[in-house]
Structures are given as structure tokens and as C-alpha cells.
Amino acid sequence: MKTKLKMIYWESEKFWIGKLLDHPEIMTQGETLAELEENMKEAYTLMTMDDVPPKHKIKELILSV
């Protein structure tokens, strides 16, 4: 399964820093932009899928609010 995520990022004095717009609680850094992207993918996986078994199912829920 592929997921598209939007990341806001910027360069500080030492690191590239980023956070996910849809999950602002997920934030990380890297010495390069490429490292930031890899760290972000890993952080997203750890925060959202780490405790989910490999044989899982996905279902879309519709809420009326």
C-alpha cells in the first residue's frame, strides 16, 4: 500500500527539519534533505503502523458529523 504525505520542512543551522501536515505530531530531522525524507518515512511507520500485524485489512469509514 502506498500513502502520500505532505511534509513541511526547512533548513536550520545544522539540520533539515520537517513535520507532516496531516500528522503534525510526527516531526523529525536529518543532516541532508534525503536523510530527512528517510527519517520521516521511518517516523511515520513507527507512529502509525508499528503495532499492526503484516496481515491486516483496511476499511474506509464514513462519519456524519
Topology:
Elements lengths: L6 E5 L4 E5 L6 E4 L2 H17 L16
Antiparallel strand pairs: 1-2, 2-3
Structure explained in plain terms:
The protein has a three-stranded antiparallel β-sheet, with helices on one face. The longest helix has 17 residues, at 33-49. Helices cover 26% and strands 22% of the residues. It has one domain: Double Stranded RNA Binding Domain. It has one helix and three strands. The protein starts with 6 loop residues before the first strand and ends in a 16-residue tail after the last helix. It has 65 residues and is of the alpha+beta class. It has one helix spanning 33-49; strands at 7-11, 16-20, 27-30. The mean pLDDT is 90.
List the strand order in the largest sheet.
1-2-3
Please report which band the strand proportion falls in: under 5%, 5-15%, 15-25%, 25-35%, 35-45% or over 45%: 15-25%
Average pLDDT number: 90
> Can you tell me the number of structural domains?
1
Sketch the topology as an H/E string, one letter per element: EEEH
Principal-axis shape equals elongated
Number of extended strands: 3
CATH topology grouping: Double Stranded RNA Binding Domain
Largest sheet properties: 3 strands, antiparallel
Radius of gyration from the alpha-carbon trace, in angstroms? 14 Å
Number of helices: 1
Provide a compact summary of the structure.
This protein is an alpha+beta fold and 65 residues long. The chain contains 1 helix and 3 strands. A 3-stranded antiparallel beta sheet has the order 1-2-3, covered by helices on one side.
